[in-house]
Description:
The protein has helices at about 80-85, 90-100; strands at about 5-15, 25-35, 35-45, 55-65, 65-75, 120-125, 140-150, 150-165. By secondary structure, it is mostly beta strands. The protein has a single domain, classed as Ganglioside M2 Activator Protein, Chain: A (Distorted Sandwich), CATH 2.70.220. A hairpin with a 2-residue loop joins strand 7 and strand 8. The model is unreliable at about 165-174 (pLDDT under 50).
Amino acid sequence: MAFGDISTRHTNIKCEIFDPLYAETRVCRLNVLGRGIIGANVHIQIHKLPIRKVKINYSVWKKLSGYHPFLFNVTVDLCHHMKHPNPLTVFYYFYGALLPFINVNHTCPINVSVSQHDLILKNFVLDNQMFSKVPIPKGSYMFMIKIIADGEWRSTIYDYLDVNVDDGPRTMSG
């Protein structure tokens, strides 16, 4: 049974850093990569090493009259996940979608030169297949990603996106 075509696209991205002595945002923007193709780009420069513990809190919010919690709000020990990835968690799929576009692919502690351990997300394009495992209603959404390093909330990334579902019959052309 087909559920129709799912179309997704980034609409905005915002980055907040709470301690400029710890890290700073170098890049936080969307780029048009082609017709209808929008890539998210983030570069957070880290100033203080070593980093021994990293937790990621990620949540989905649906826009109704304002943004409201939707589907999940999960906190993951990133250091543990990097050593022991668990395909039974939703974070496994979330991280897997980012992996081709992000340089965060090593375990803790992070303790060598700063330039090699900046957080860089380059041209992350939403793939319509990302939502094939979890049917999601059409609408506007926000992914909120909080980064907690060494026990302190260091930054938040807000990624806004639209999901449009065409439930009508598909026509084949060509």
